[in-house]
Amino acid sequence: MSETLSGATPPPGTSAIARLVAAPAAKAVSIGGLLLMMLIPLHYVSGVIEEREARQAEVVGEFQGSWGPAQSVIGPILVVPYSTSPDRPRRYLHIAPSELKATARLDPELRKRGLFHSVVYTADFRLSGRFAMPADIAAPDGAALLWPEAFVALMASDLRALKSNASMTWSGRPLSWGDCPQDADGSCGGALFVLARPGLVGPPTPGDSIPFETQLALRGTGAFRFAPIGQEVDFGLSAPWPTPGFVGAILPSSSNVTGSGFEAAWHVSSNIATGRAVWSSFNALLGGHAWQRPQDQIGVELLEAVPTYRMVDRASKYAVLFLALSFLTYFLFELVSRTRIHFVQYGLLGSSIVLFSLLLISLSEPLGFDLGYVIGSGLILLQASLYTAAVTRRLRLALVFASMLAALFGFLYIVLTLETYALLAGSLALFVALSLVMVVTRHLDWSSARPDFGAPARDIEAPPA
């Protein structure tokens, strides 16, 4: 009579405890406990990954301090001081351009410090447009506007790359950019901005349209943003960088992304940074508007094509799945092939799987994620497969295990590269794996003890002499 997976009746004299220990269900529970114990080294490996990721963030911060932060540019804005009474501090009336055209050409590069890196850039930023004077322009509460002290202000996150002879053209006249005014009563607030004084004698004629133009050299790290303050704003941005991430309140009206770079264009006509074209404040500049709200700006983040640390972190989260399926495969080997596998051997296999995440982070830092993944997964696949061949002493079982592990590594890489359908692919793969386990164990009596379950492994039979 053929033997099923449930096995035959245990030999006479077998105690109840021995029957319980020999039951497949008891072995499965023990393996589950071992799986929980493997979470301890996984936790420490995750800590190493977090430490390396934190060090990468520190290096980016160091580049931001030495090269320049992510640039946010605001302006130009025509600022007119006024005072309601001699004993009260000055206030400032801000006038946004009626037309503003801005173009920024970024020249990015990857700077390294040891194994860590940061994306930095230099920017050629050009601005042109017009200031149209409203017919009803006036200071609140009937205060007199101090037009001779008016200035045009432009603010940025970092102006260290600005040339000393930088200037703007105001109605055909060149005006030099200067520092924060000495009479601003601290209203600059520590912000980095430059100003140009047009030398107005009195209020411009209502309806006048004053043209302006300027060019700036800026340096930054990681991202470039621009506050679209104006009644009609056109902004163009380009760079030889194949993986841009457009950010801000409005996505580009048009964009073209290729393997050699990108071009993007925005058109804004709603003063999204301030909500109005003319406003009053105690500060010489925006007084808490777009400078403090990056979400009201528009621009780009220079993303990595393959974000190494994020990919490694995502890969490490699948280590429990790898452990569970590897242990399950060993357990099925014991069920269907009368092969004995000791708990220590389960533990050594688990240690090999846990080591993958550590290998992946250590190889990906100098070699990149793709090459690091290929080498790391290949090493673990070779180690675990050879160990399985030694444990089971059956080449066929070792090939089965190698095929399973190779399929897991291939599946994980596909899931990591998928953004939109990663959850769908993972759910379907788990469904297929569970279905296969159900098929293999459909005739197993989990409460019965098998006389051969846990028996010593049998060597490959040698051919007769």
Comma- or semicolon-separated keywords:
disordered N terminus; eight-stranded mixed beta sheet; alpha+beta; 36% helix; 465 residues; disordered C terminus; 2 domains; 9 helices; single chain; 16 strands; elongated
Describe the 3D structure.
The chain is α+β, with helices and mostly antiparallel strands. The chain has two domains: 16-52 and 309-440, no CATH class; 70-305, no CATH class. It has nine helices and 16 strands. The chain has helices spanning 16-22, 24-37, 39-66, 308-316, 319-337, 343-367, 369-392, 395-417, 422-440; strands at 71-82, 91-95, 99-113, 116-132, 151-155, 167-170, 173-176, 193-196, 209-221, 223-227, 232-239, 244-248, 254-258, 261-268, 278-281, 298-302. Strands 1, 2, 5, 8, 10, 12, 15 and 16 form an eight-stranded mixed β-sheet that branches. Strand 1 (71-82) and strand 2 (91-95) form a beta hairpin. Helix 3 (39-66) runs antiparallel to helix 4, helix 3 packs parallel to helix 6 and helix 5 (319-337) packs antiparallel against helix 6. It is elongated, with a radius of gyration of 34 Å. The protein starts with 15 loop residues before the first helix and ends in a 25-residue tail after the last helix.
